[in-house]
Each structure stands twice: as C-alpha cells, then as structure tokens.
C-alpha cells in the first residue's frame, strides 16, 4: 500500500498509520511543534485540531477564501504579526478542492514555517498538475469509511524527506 500510494502520488515516502489523526499527530512531532501555535483554517473537521491541542500547541484559526481553502492573505498577515510563535501551517484541502499551495509554499519559504497538508477530503486533487499532499513538508491522508479514498480505517503520512519517514515509522511502532 505504501509503495503503490507513493507511486500514484509522486512522493517517495509513505507511512501507513491507524488514522489521519495519528498521521497529523506524528507530523506535528516531526516538525517539532512544541507548545506554540499552528495556523489552521476555521472551516475544518475537529479531527484536524485535536492533534494540535494534543501537542500542547494553540490553533490559530484563519478564515477560508472563496474556494473553501485557507485564505493565504490571512496566513501571511498572521505570520507577519505572530511569526515568532507560529510553528506550522496546516491547510485543509476540503471537499476535493485544493488550497492555493503555490502561494502557501511561497509564504512558508519566506517565513521558514513548514506546511503539513490535511488531504483527507481531497485525495487526487491537483493544482498546476501537482498532487495535493506531496507539496508541503508532510501530507496526511485518511482511509476512513467516510472519506473518498477508503480502506475502512487507516491513515497515510507522506513526505519527500527520508529521515522524516524513518522517524515516522519508529513513532508508529512505539520507537522500535
């Protein structure tokens, strides 16, 4: 599953997990979210926010734009105002619609803040020919029975960074 999903998505490292919530939790650990703040869209499922709270961080909610994706102008504004305490940006590709990843990636690069993509509702969504979930530092997918890509239950963490993938595999196996 990991290999086939990685080939389909165009990402070299996929780690299967018990849920997308677990993938988000591990992703926050991998990018060292430590009791500061994570930018998240105000329009999302509570399961996107629970791992942020579990990590001891505070969600900073920003509005969405006309596409339903996180408003990149507000993300830029929050980072300008609060840059020192923002540890990650967590856009949600909702209802099959991709966020404006080109703009988010430029903002992420400028401020040095990693992007963790929540792709639970949009596997296969593309922007400029690029698959969502493979553009940020980490992409998180769900295989829950209520999602477009279902396996009954489960989640996938995707990254281009081999070291992050190795660490994610250790975390999913209780450090083994």
Keyword list:
176 residues, three-stranded parallel sheet, alpha/beta, four-stranded mixed sheet, globular
Describe the 3D structure.
With 176 residues, the protein is an alpha/beta fold. Helix content is 35%, strand content 20%. It is built from 6 helices and 9 strands, in the order H-E-H-E-H-E-H-E-H-E-E-E-E-E-H. The protein has a 4-stranded mixed beta sheet with strand order 1-9-8-5, with helices on both faces. Strands 3-2-4 form a 3-stranded parallel beta sheet, sandwiched between helices. It has a two-stranded antiparallel sheet with strand order 6-7. Strand 2, helix 3 and strand 3 (58-62) form a beta-alpha-beta unit. Helix 2 (20-30) crosses helix 3 (46-54), helix 2 (20-30) packs across helix 6 (162-172) and helix 4 packs parallel to helix 5. The longest helix is centred in the N-terminal third of the chain and has 11 residues, at 20-30. It starts with a helix and ends with a helix. The mean pLDDT is 92.
